[in-house]
């Protein structure tokens, strides 16, 4: 596909509108069809060419690709028939709310020669990419331990909307911090390899009017090469803190590296040092990672290359989440299901 001519966007919530804005800027002439639970003037005002309420209606426009941006609990209901119809798919994170049916979607896309990409846009953050390069280059020696933290007060995520009606607040739509903040699990896999086991506690700690966990604490054990001490990471996730935070600190043999998503910076504290030193800073716009994500997706569709965040990556994250839920339930370490 030399140029995307017809795109289907499934869901026009905040993330769907963001995808629409990005693709309009990258491919101004693209015809956009929106699949929503209702059609109204709002869809037209958002820059959509056609608005439909069913997959069959959408397919009449012969879209070449689709971005799946409806609630995670509904992802596979739409993605599966679209894959069977031959559409390339960019699926918002998480890929689904459970592993059920995900392998089938991956296999359909493989057989049909379709791009299936999971939309973990943090992989396209210049500061996180530099952080990874420095880790792999052993800037602070071998990794001994990792601390990752993410949190933001749920009502402040989208202040213009009632947080109680948001996907993040409802189990039936795929809410809760484990699914909604699963970026952390994805990028930790990207940085340190496959996660073999999880020990976790997930709970609703606050008085927020939600029916999902607002706090999760995970200890993650990563696979290691023979003779090398395996890495462990402590991951804290919440939607109750008021100081918005997204950081990852690597404790190495010769110092520590710290990534701060909010500032787009990577810092080092060398052995024997007295203060953190900034190694890298990227002050970009919020859409930058989405633009890079879309450029990559379009490139994969065009040349058939495998996406850097595959459907299999999305499935691996869900397996970690399922292991974390089971660990919290039984109160012990749970091994993560191995990739097939």
Number of strands: 15
The gross shape turns out to be globular
Strand order of the largest sheet: 14-13-12-11-7-10-9-8-15
Binned strand content: 25-35%
* Spatial separation of the terminal alpha carbons: 30 Å
Order of SSEs: EHEHEHEHEHEHEHHEEEEEEEHHE
Radius of gyration: 20 Å
Q: Which consecutive residue ranges, at least 5 long each, have pLDDT under 50?
A: none
Helix content: 25-40%
Structural class assignment: alpha/beta
Number of H/I helices:
10
Question: What does this entry look like structurally?
Answer:
The structure is a single chain. With 340 residues, the protein is of the alpha/beta class. Helix content is 31%, strand content 25%. It is built from 10 helices and 15 strands. The protein has helices at 14-26, 41-45, 55-59, 75-84, 102-112, 126-136, 177-180, 183-192, 288-303, 311-330; strands at residues 6-10, 31-35, 50-52, 65-68, 88-92, 116-119, 143-151, 195-203, 215-222, 232-238, 245-252, 255-260, 265-270, 277-281, 334-335. It starts with 5 loop residues before the first strand and ends in a 5-residue tail after the last strand. The mean pLDDT is 94.
Please summarize what this structure is.
Helix content is 31%, strand content 25%. Helix 1 crosses helix 9 and helix 4 (75-84) runs parallel beside helix 5.
Question: Which helices and strands occur, and which strands form pairs?
Answer:
Layout: E1 6-10, H1 14-26, E2 31-35, H2 41-45, E3 50-52, H3 55-59, E4 65-68, H4 75-84, E5 88-92, H5 102-112, E6 116-119, H6 126-136, E7 143-151, H7 177-180, H8 183-192, E8 195-203, E9 215-222, E10 232-238, E11 245-252, E12 255-260, E13 265-270, E14 277-281, H9 288-303, H10 311-330, E15 334-335
Parallel strand pairs: 1-2, 1-4, 2-3, 4-5, 5-6, 7-10
Antiparallel strand pairs: 7-11, 8-9, 8-15, 9-10, 11-12, 12-13, 13-14
